[in-house]
Amino acid sequence: MTMDKILITICARGGSKGIPGKNIKPVGGRPLLAFTADAAKGFARLHGADIALSTDSDAIRAVGAQEGLPTDYVRPDYLANDTVGKVEAIKDVVEYMENRRGNRYDFVIDLDVTSPLRTLADIEGALALLKGDEHALDVFSVNPCARNPYFCMVEKKDNGYYKEVAQGCFDSRQSCPKVYDMNGSIYVYRREALDREHPRAVTERSLVYVMNHICFDLDEPADYDYMAFLIESGRVKFEDGVGAVFC
Asked: In angstroms, rounded to a whole number, what is the distance separating the alpha carbons of residues 196 and 189?
């Protein structure tokens, strides 16, 4: 049996406005990038995958090299601003790696630096889910949603009054359709999904991988404080080749 050709992409641009340098900001004594680097390397060792770091920042590139992710790829400036979709940046580094390696990948796994609470089993589970449905284009990780847009969330109408975000007629939250929060941690794409005219993470043939543990995106200072608390209190550990371990 021929082994699937898999590329893991780790995208970390340098121009964060909310928290400068957030991709390499120390958390629990390590740069944030290190946790995703460990997970990627663990998966790569088991599955023969390649890893590509995509960044426009020399500082991030230097930390990546220290964490076992050396790269000579430099993300172009037009793909390094906050108005460009991430999938476009992923596609660019995928094409770079394919030209360099002389092959075409079957699957691309993107691991987000700012959402590192994932396990090796999560990555493998998401990939298996996509491989199990030949019609699906991609899979992304989610958590059960605390607030339901059919029942607990409203938006302003043009006339100044308010309505539910998602329309429906439900008398209780339990009777509403099940919804999920995209946690941004894992995205798995069939290679052909990236060749669509306007590639996106959410398509008409997307699947979700539901994590059975906490996972959240680090975006505000309080998020970093919470992550540091989880690590320093021993509630979460990171093991090389395993990823996050929840205690």
From this structure: 12
Domain ranges of the chain: 6-143+181-246
Mean pLDDT, all residues of the chain: 91
CA separation, residue 184 to residues 40, 59, 138, 162, 246 (Å): 15, 23, 13, 29, 19
**pLDDT, average across residues 201-211:** 95
Q: Are strands 6-11 and 107-111 parallel, antiparallel or unpaired?
A: parallel
Superfamily of domain 6-143+181-246: Spore Coat Polysaccharide Biosynthesis Protein SpsA; Chain A (3.90.550.10)
Token couple for 19: 């928290």
One-letter amino acid at 172 equals S
pLDDT at 125 > cutoff 60: yes
SS3 assignment for the chain: CCCCCEEEEEECCCCCCCCCCHHHCEECCEEHHHHHHHHHHHHHHHHCCEEEEECCCHHHHHHHHHCCCCCCCCCCHHHCCCCCCHHHHHHHHHHHHHHHHCCCCCEEEEECCCCCCCEHHHHHHHHHHHHCCCCCCEEEEEEECCCCCCCCCEEECCCCCEEECCCCCCCCHHHCCCCEEEEEEEEEEEHHHHHCCCCCCCCCCEEEEECCCCCCCCCCHHHHHHHHHHHHCCCEEEECCCEEEEC
Report the alpha-carbon distance of residue 218 to residue 89 in Å, rounded. Answer: 20
Tokens 């699947």 belong to residue? 207
pLDDT value at 231 more than 70: yes
